[in-house]
What we know:
Number of strands: 13
Helix content: 25-40%
CATH superfamily: Vaccinia Virus protein VP39
Distance between the termini: 39 Å
Number of domains: 1
Radius of gyration: 19 Å
Number of helices: 12
Order of helices and strands: HEEEEEHHHEHEHEHEHEHEHEHHE
Strand content: 15-25%
Largest sheet: 7 strands, mixed
Strand order of the largest sheet: 8-7-6-9-10-13-12
Low-confidence stretches: none
Amino acid sequence: MTKKTLSTRDLHLERKVMWDSSIANHEKFLNKETGMFQNSFLETRSCPTCETQNDETLFIKSGGTYVRCAECEMVYLNPVFKDSAIEEYYRGNHNLQSTIVANDFGFYRELYTKGLTGFQKIFDKPNPTILDIGCSAGGFLNIAKEFGWKTFGLEFNKQEAAVSRKSQHEVFEMDLGTFVKTSDLKFDAITLWDVFEHIKNGEALLAQARTVLNANGGVFIQSPTPTALAPKILHEKCNMFDGLEHVNLYTFENIRQLAEKTGFEVYSYCTVISEKGVINNYLNYKDPYLGSTDKLELKDVVTDEYILGNNLGYKFQIFLKKKS
């Protein structure tokens, strides 16, 4: 399929539809007088990485408060939605992700292929097995199948799960915890594409994942990171911070610590998506996502080569290999 090339403005105009839909769903949880989420939906917590209670407030965004741990620099929402409230939110939320992926498939194919080729060389056997958590309509699994993987997925959304099954992927409509308790299947790789930042307890998920991995298996994660150049410049104006869904935003060191706790080691790490266009718009006093300027500020710094070469990309791709 031919790669689709979009301008910064066009790319984010498509994503704005999904963003606006999410924000609209936020509103029923807000206190209209304060603009913050109602306390009945919330609970406070310790740092999801080091478990200390020593955080500093960074800013408030769309009703949620982002803090940073003074001990390990983890960025997270505190307070955060209770499990019952977040389930209610997701059940009432949009199902636009698969449409966005389909419309921008050239962009996603490049990301998916980069991640897959980064770790698949360690599996020297025919038809290795892969489980994609939050597989949506199967965009990534379609590519994995092209590369010779036997494909499985977990997906709550019934419509998207049905679409994925039409491409001959075996899909279960449950979370990983339930799957672990009800299935004897084992996998060579488990993938989380833009899912891990939505999980309140990343350590527990990695521990669960380890139980359904074959020897020499591992977990691949793509997730936005607060150490990227774009959020460091834009702060609360960065779409990384949505106030509700992105509950945990990890640094490389945070992930390494969780890996150590749960029996993994880092096999590979890089960042992707420079967000150069977003940064350039902002530096030129334009809307960072909808501005159309092509003028470069700091032209020797704000380049793809500098950003990605120094692991300052918007999202990280990391593969955690299971320790023997």
